[in-house]
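Cross-posted from the bioinformatics board.
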Amino acid sequence: MGETSNEGSFTLETRQFESDGDDGTYENQRSLLWEHKTEVVEESNGLVFGVKGRYDDQDHKRNITWPEDLYFYQKNQSFKFVVGYQIFNYSYMEAFNPLDILNARQYDTSILNAEKMGELSLGLETYVFDGDLKLYLLPRPAKPYFPSSSSRLRADLDQVSVAWLGGDVDSSEWDDHFLLSFERSFDSFDAQFLVSKNIDRRKVLVGTTDYQEISGNIFPKADADFALYFSEQLITGAIVVYNFESFQVKSGFASHTYIPDTEILTNSGLTSFEDYSELVLGAEVPISHANGFDSTVFVEYQKIIPDSVSATGALQNDVFLAWKLNFNDPTGTEIKTAMTYDVSGNEEGFVQADFSRRYLSDFKYTIGILSYLNTESYNPPLDDLDETNHIYANLTYFY
Amino acid sequence: MGNLFLVCLFFSSFVLSSYSADQTALGIAQLVKESNTGFVGEQGKMEMILKLENQEIKRLMVSKSLEVSPDENRTLLVFEIPKDVRGTKLLTWSFESKDDSQWIYLPSLRRVKRITSSGSSSSFMGSEFTFEDLRNSGIKKYEYSNLSELKKDNDILWKYNRKSLKKSGYSKQIVTVSKKYMNIVKIEYFDRSGEKLKVAEFSNFKQFQVKNKTMWRAGRIVMRNLQTKKSSILIWSERKIGVRINKSVFQKGSLK
């Protein structure tokens, strides 16, 4: 038996929403979030067991447990072989991360910081050309989690299932999804390239594929099943992070090509997933204050091309502005404020601010506010986020 | 200074024999630098104690260093305590003349971030050490002046000023080098307005043998902030030198 380590946390989460006058929803939600990670490391192999779960004594539909990292690896001087559930991270910016698309999310928290769920994967990693090359097979895409109708962050989706377009997740056959990435650091910049075939779990269409044409008009069939449709895609993209002496610039792009061309009958009529590209630009400016505090200003911009595709996601042609103040004290006190705003004319966006501090070395608390702006202009299912402004307070114990 | 904290500083009889009385401050810095080459790899545990007015707070880290070439070292720090940042990793590629590269892995975000040069004057884990203190003090990154020599006990101490050629949180540093250990034993830091800000004192030197070289390491560094009266102490344990560590450990991609 190699070296074993255990760590985890329990977080008491509370959030208070403004009243919506609906007895079927909970204005005050309380939950216990727990996570545990055990890691067994031997000289050339290791086992990681990381799971996470949430318990809500009111809204039992929030009571779920999911794998985060649950994998075995074997490595030698040249290669690392990995099999199991993994959370992949290809995020380089605070808000807009076009390459960070590989895991299903839990939309029970902020859209920007939705929790990721582990993805079943089988991979090989190697160090070549002074960089990290990774090839993963992703045979079983996990489905995203949406809060139920009793949650104020609901999408009124109790009766609606999640369905894939393309792929073969509901059969016993394996999908041929994959990830190929290469990452290399140079003197002043980092570069990341990625190609992947997977399910795009950030773009969704609500509707049915079970429809009929009557007198030139399209209607859903009487027994049609409505679903949240996610489509199989091929994504290629790159991110570059460049360091200047006093600030950092980030830029990236991703091109999404949808493999099936299935049409879905939605509230807006027949439609299908349309290929699109994302361009992101960002800057990060650290500032040292005379009193020993440090702050960082973040400015990011995302452009979706063509404009007609914007409506299928929460983030479109948006600007993100954020300011983080670090007190640099032993308790790790930090204040963060952030705003995302759609500059294409929809006036959508959200504002978030929070304060966090360590307490007694094993505890940490966070209090904050999250407010959505003009969400009625979102397309389903996100249009139901209207009137979901809330404050939240979390207390975490680490072990 | 970072390498002086995290990488071995060793005594070389060959190097010392080449010392002459008319050495310049740059020459002394070069001797110290040459004394640092050849450690191959190093690992150990670091305890950092933050001394505040009424309490002491502990930080625990695991440190690994690799000598890639005489002009390039790589260092990886993994945090164990405080528990809310356990698993945070700080990777530094230190170069003799060009800018260092530094990345931090934040497990709560599962994200690797490159650290900007100007962010290097930030406090390291709420301590009196800054990221700049933990970076390489490559001799070509400073201009030197005011070399003096004094005797103390059975040792000879060389004292000189150095001023960063790059953007720095300090206007100058006064460095004291021990001939006995061929190591820095004290650094006085001056803030941008020229006021003395901090003093770092290196002690508890321990001898190590790597191949044919005898090396010395400071086992304890006390950093006192003269303006806030706070201090932080770094203490090493379980230190091994001359170990071979795979280069892939020090890749950005390995941080995740």
